[in-house]
Target: Tetratricopeptide repeat protein
Amino acid sequence: MTNLVESLRKLKSAWREGDLKAVLKLADSLPTDLSGVQKLRLKAALKTEDWAVVSDAALHLVSEEPGLVLTAAKTLLRKDKASDAALLLLQLKEHTPERHEVAEQTATVLLKSGALASQKGDARKAAELWCLGAKLSPENVALKRKLSEALAAAVQRAKSLTTVRGLDAYVDAWETVLSIDPENIAAAKRLVVVAEQKSNASRAFALWARLLNMEPANKAIPLRLTKAAVQAGDEAKALVRLHVAGLDGSDDNAVKVLRRRVIAKIKQDLIDDDPAAAAEKFNALAKAQTSEEDIGRLPASIVVRLTRKLRDARKAGDDTTASYLANLLLQIDESNALALSTAARLSLQSRRFEDAAKLYERLLAKKPDFPKAAQLLERAKAHIQLAHIAKVVSASSRSAA
Model:
């Protein structure tokens, strides 16, 4: 905790002094989920015109600071960063009139940028820009026409190629088709064949996962997905994919193989004294309908080892690791007192008062006499009340003006 407090103090001091380089450096060393830190990081990046940092910081603020994110998008658009602006705008859930206006302006720029890329012979880049524009402005007739023309041309070109005459050109052509039409089954199937031939297990897994979404009733896909996952070492991810597709409750061979391999890897992680890796895999395993008989004492073993690692991180003042371990613990043991107290204190310290209050309430429900928990809960609630009052006063001031 001391490390976090000291770093936050230095960050605020650097901002007050106008040392923008120091602000960016300190912000990069702090947890990314601290909205106050990301807000200062975004403001510093806007002043220094570090557009990559502007985009990254704004993405962390979409929920809490939509107005600031919109400002960042407008700035990026003015600086000829239309693609980055579009990615931010797509994340904003509240479609205000101002957001709509900026989105339409950005879509128009992307339409023109795509046309320039097409003139230069970069059909794939053109298609990417038009796709992005169409997501922002789905009813834009010009973008619809350009995408339709681009897809027809891409399919025609892809069908004219073979793997024998030029594998790279063949793959690039079908990747272009898939980028324009993400639901194109023919493109995905052709690409997955090539990925398997080239022993590119990670790409094959990604493509089979996509095909599973397109053809959930195709019984051959789970087996092919499983094979690719095993080769890529992504068994846990495959279980999650099958869960999303509603297939994790079945007793077919694909699911059984994945469960066995994930359990074996969890046990090896514990032998290697890496309970965090074990917990990551277990949380994927827990989503599948795995019997308690198969899981055995794995949850208890993971919790014991994770708790020890969490104590070590707290003792060392490593708040980033402590936060990560506490969150992993709570996914397995939602009433773990050490994890709850750690997550609550870090939330309070980083001024996420609503999160802190909820965590302290859970902690007190589990351990009513936990030291200082009641006082800290009241502190969090007081801050929430003050924030509410400040919003009311601010709204009243705007109305009066």
